[in-house]
Design brief:
Layout: H1 33-53, H2 61-90, H3 95-122, H4 135-179, H5 184-200, H6 202-219, E1 227-228, H7 229-247, E2 251-256, E3 265-266, H8 272-283, E4 290-299, E5 302-310, H9 320-337, E6 342-348, E7 351-359
Parallel strand pairs: 2-4
Antiparallel strand pairs: 1-3, 4-5, 5-7, 6-7
Helix pairs in contact: 1-2, 2-3, 3-4, 4-9, 5-6, 5-7, 6-7, 8-9
Amino acid sequence: MNKQTAVMSAVTTPAAGKPEQVEQFFLPSFCDVRLVFAVVVITELLAFVLALVSPGILDNPWENLGLLSMFMQWIALTSAAVLCGARSYLARLGNTTAGILSYLLVLLVTAAVSEMAFWLMVNSRAFTAINSGQHLQFLLRSLTISTVIAAVVLRYLFIQHQWRMQLQAEARFRIQALQARIRPHFLFNSMNTIAALTRSRPETAEEAIQDLADLFRASLNNTDERTTLAEELTLARRYLNIEALRLGDRLQVEWDLDSVPPDTRVPPLILQPLLENAIYHGIEPLPDGGLIRVTGAIERGMVEINITNPVPAQGGGSHEGNRIALDNIRQRLGLAFGSRAGLEAAVSGEEYRVNIHFPEAQLS
């Protein structure tokens, strides 16, 4: 039967570097290709709506739509380019000042593009119905529309930013509360085991105290920091070392993570709670114990880690405490990687399987 690996001598520490911070500036990066695409699509939809309500749409609908689309795309893409270039400066000013300046920049771009477009039309033979007397009317109409649309868009971006910040703050608060929680029964059992080993095996008791101290140190670390998979595995093995002292041969663990790079970035404490649940709900209720398998692989840039444990006859995988831990891990992965990460858990035959997946990211 497999035994737990020897206690590692290296102390688990957070990943080097500053904690990752949530960006405080409300204006997104208009340099991002996906955002530029969204700007183009939304502008085209607005152009279509304006073309429908414009006079003479039935006379030449496609020509009107084409001209209006080109004019609005000039304004939208130029504004996006200006905000992209000025973003680093605007971010230093605070959201209120930055919002006002962004608004004025969009209006300035609208005025400049409208002025250029008007004089191109006046000097073109294709627009014989347009004369210089319509200059002020054309400029005011463009600025009025831009004033309303820019105000709505900037207000929407600010509200989205506030909502996102509140959601992330609430998520971090819940995660911190859950991350700092180590089951009381595990702590008491560990202390009893250490006390029993103090006289008969003092060196083993000292190693167990070191493992327990590292677990508490990790649970109190900043949740905004990322760690590496190697450090997360070190912490998980320290936890299993303590449980192996109590459970003995009833606890068997099989590792197969060689295909996952050890410097893969992960949120802290995503494996230890899953292993704790596997022992608490799967190994402890069985008189003969059982085997926990931890496997991992990388497929199409996604890291997948599976943890399986035996299921007692009464179905230990559905315990309420288990669902709390799974929700905890889901929140961690979602906060760190977004919608591409996730966690699934299900009973398959006589085994309970947990699968976590997230994009591959390594330390540079």
